[in-house]
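In response to the reviewer comment on reproducibility (Comment 2.3), we provide here a single inverse folding case reported in full, input and output, so that an independent group could reproduce the run without further information from us. The structure tokens appear first.
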């Protein structure tokens, strides 16, 4: 009976250890934290496509391994609000914190009596306020605080494309894949870049223009495409203009003194007016320590050799004395 009781205790301890959280050392690296702030309680938070929790009153702290694959995208969403999406450009150091902020905008209320049918919304996100939004060829308003809300009827003729434009910026055009259901919102995203102030001659252009947006966690880092230096990271990004009919780049490098250079592959080339995002996370070079010089001490003569030397000296002295 005593042995059976001991066996049960051992099995219980083993079962508990299966549910203990893994430490940073267990998962192959050190740990820091993301502190996610949001203005709306109860919203769902995703890092890349991983659900990490809902927003409490205040902020949500999420652990992240400093040596693991870094997260690239923060997404926060809640029914009745426009989905928030932003890039993550910083990785927490061991024991450190990185603050991330999300602001959710409430969707305008629907009024069924005035609609005459079911209503949903397209929410068009853009990086430039004041840009005009068109669904197919119909003007639907201007971007304000990064978004514009476009109400649509789920029973109406569906739109197939959206356009975002503004003077001084390159036009953006994207496809619309479906119509929102009643009460549903569909997010559409557009990034427009300023028109280049210096334009090459048609002979040197050889085609239309697209862009790469290179994101990095270290400002001042130099960005190189192939063997061509394209500039330095500023405020987390660098926009690189390319000709879509030119020879495509296959790799890019981001480097800065004091950091391990990052080299990534380029799998997608931008189409005309399109922007392709590239991400590079630089890690500080490990500290180097100077090798310690070990003092070399000359060992004393072994006793046997010392005795032979004394014997030779004694014999020499005796010989000299005998000659005298």
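Designed residues, in position order:
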């Amino acid at each position: 009976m005593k042995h059976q009781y001991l066996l049960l205790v051992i099995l219980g301890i083993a079962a508990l250890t299966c549910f203990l959280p893994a430490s940073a050392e267990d998962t192959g690296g050190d740990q820091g934290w993301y502190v996610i702030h949001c203005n709306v309680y109860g919203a769902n938070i995703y890092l890349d496509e991983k659900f990490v929790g809902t927003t409490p009153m205040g902020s949500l702290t999420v652990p992240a391994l400093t040596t693991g694959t870094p997260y690239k995208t923060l997404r926060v969403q809640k029914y009745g609000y426009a989905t928030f999406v932003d890039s993550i450009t910083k990785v927490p150091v061991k024991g450190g914190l990185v603050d991330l902020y999300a602001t959710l905008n409430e969707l305008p209320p629907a009024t069924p009596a005035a609609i005459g049918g079911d209503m949903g919304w397209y929410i068009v996100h853009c990086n430039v306020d004041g840009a005009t939004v068109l669904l197919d060829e119909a003007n639907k308003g201007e971007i304000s605080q990064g978004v514009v809300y476009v109400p649509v009827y789920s029973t109406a003729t569906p739109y197939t494309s959206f356009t975002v434009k503004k003077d001084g910026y390159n036009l953006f055009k994207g496809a619309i894949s479906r119509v929102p259901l009643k009460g549903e919102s569909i997010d559409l995203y557009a990034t427009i870049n300023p028109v280049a102030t210096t334009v090459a001659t048609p002979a040197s252009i050889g085609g239309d223009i697209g862009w790469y947006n290179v994101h990095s966690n270290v400002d001042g880092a130099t960005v190189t495409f192939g063997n061509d230096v394209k500039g330095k990271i500023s405020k987390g990004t660098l926009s690189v203009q390319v000709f879509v009919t030119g020879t495509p780049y296959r790799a890019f490098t981001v480097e800065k003194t004091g950091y391990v250079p990052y080299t990534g592959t380029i799998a997608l080339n931008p189409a005309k007016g399109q922007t392709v995002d590239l991400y590079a996370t630089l890690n500080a070079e490990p500290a180097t320590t100077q090798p310690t010089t070990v003092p070399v001490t000359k060992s004393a003569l072994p006793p046997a050799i010392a005795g032979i030397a004394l014997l030779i000296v004694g014999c020499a002295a005796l010989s000299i004395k005998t000659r005298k």
